[in-house]
Every structure is written in C-alpha cells, then in structure tokens.
Amino acid sequence: MIREILISALLIVGSLLIFLSGLGLMRFSDALCRSHALAKASTCGICLMLAALIMAIDNDISGLKIFLVMTFTLLTIPLAGHLTAQLVYRHEQGRLKHPSREKTPSSKTR
Amino acid sequence: MMTAVVILTFALLAAASVLALVRVLIGPTIIDRIIAFDLVAISIVGMMVVLSVWWKTQLFIEIMLIFSLLGFVGTVAFVCYLHNDPSKLKRVGKKDDSRKETP
Q1: Which end of chain A is more exposed for a tag (fewer CB within 10 A), N or C?
Q2: How far apart are the first and last CA of chain B?
Q3: What is the DSSP letter of A99?
Q4: Which residue, among A57, A99, A35, has the nearest Cα to B34 in the 3D structure?
Q5: What is the rounded distance in angstroms from the CA atom of residue A55 to the CA atom of residue A99?
Q6: Cβ contact, residue pair B38, A80, below 8 Å
Q7: Least CB-CB distance to B68: which of A8, A19, A72?
Q8: How far is it, in rounded angstroms, from Cα A15 to Cα B46?
Q9: What's the pLDDT tens digit per position in A80-92?
Q10: pLDDT tens, B43-83?
Q11: Which residues of B touch A52 (CB under 8 A)?
C-alpha cells in the first residue's frame, strides 16, 4: 500500500515535470529560454519516473538495467541541451531579441 | 487508484508531446524544432515507463535504452549537420526575420 502510494507520487510528479517542460517549450520566447526550460525539467521528470519503475518491478537485474537507463538519461539530455544552446549562442549572437540580454559581454556588435 | 494514476500520467505526457509537436510545427528556427523533437522522444520514453509500471513487465527496459539513445543521436546528428554548414541555419533565420517583418 505504501509502495503503491510512493510509486503513484513519483509517477505523477515526474509526468508533471515533463508537462511543465512542454509548457515552457510552448510559452517561452527564445531558443535559449526553451532549451533552458527543457533540459533540467525533463531530466528530473524522467529520472523520477524511472525511480518509480525501479520500485514497481521488484527485481535486481531489472533494477540494474533501469539504473543504466537513468544514468544514460542523466548524461545525454543535458549534453543535448548544451549542444543546441552552443549552436544558438554561436550563430544567433548578434540578433537575440531581448534588450536585457544585450548587456552580456558577448554582444559587442551592437 | 493505480488506473487513475496511469490515466493522469498518460494525459500529462500526451499533453507534453502535443505541445512539443505544436512547437515543431510553428517553431521559428530549426533549433526550436530540434529541441521540441527531443521532448517528444522523452515523453515517449515516459509513456513506456508508465506502461511498464501498469503491466509490471520488464520487456520495455531495453527499448527505453535504445529509444533514448536514438533521440540523443538524432539531436547530435542535427547539431553536427548545422555546425558544419552554418549557412543553412542563417538561411532559416533570415527567412524567419523576413516573415516577421512582413506582417
């Protein structure tokens, strides 16, 4: 009973985090902001859901496999976000929209 | 109770993937489309997790591993393609600027 409640809480919190990253992807204004919203929230959400799966399948070898999936997710999603953010930063440096970001030392062109 | 939780999580993940697909459709630059496709892959892995919790099966674990690997490799391939030839990215951005200025 306690285990079911814990699994349900982890699943709901994880899927809510993924939904919030989708909402941030929809609502934010800039490619850098969207990458920022997606990388952290979806990594945390998918790791919570995989922890719920570890609890649901009560098996050692499956737990190790799911731990492997979790480690891989923790490695790859921030790396993909970093790569896309680097691409945005390198190629759209002169024409970012917001005036608050023009104060960064990288925008010497304006 | 478990059925309600599964339905709720499926609804949230489907809503997230629908939002990401809308961003794929209307995304101003190509980088937004890459990021949104990454979110589609993540939410599909989440749906596999919910199905595994519901059916208490171990069949989907390797499929989850392979699918997250495929999403990452797709993102890296797109980034390398645009990194080696940045004129494509600039062309897309200029189109976006002209499209924004015309209305």
Answers
A1: N
A2: 51
A3: G
A4: A35
A5: 48
A6: yes
A7: A72
A8: 7
A9: 999 988 888 887 6
A10: 999 999 999 999 988 889 999 999 999 989 999 998 888 88
A11: 49, 53
Residue A74, pLDDT > 60, answer yes
CATH number at residue B18: 1.10.287
- In the block, residue with structure tokens 């499209």: B99
**Phi, psi of A12, deg, nearest 5:** -70, -40
Considering its fold, how many domains does chain B have in total?
1
Find the largest Cα–Cα distance for chain B.
55
Q: Long-range contacts: B4-12, Cβ < 8 Å, 24+?
A: B5/A7, B5/A8, B5/A11, B5/A12, B6/A11, B6/B50, B6/B53, B6/B54, B8/A12, B8/A15, B9/A11, B9/A12, B9/A14, B9/A15, B9/B46, B9/B50, B10/B47, B10/B50, B12/A12, B12/A15, B12/A16, B12/A18, B12/A19
pLDDT at B32 over 60: yes
pTM (two decimals):
0.81
| A58 CA: distance to closest CA in chain B (Å) | 9
Which domain does B42 fall in, by range? 2-101
Q: What percent of chain B has pLDDT over 90?
A: 50
Q: Where are the domains of chain A?
A: 2-94
> CB under 8 Å to A95, separation ≥6 — which residues?
B93, B97
Q: Tokens at residue B93, please?
A: 């951005």
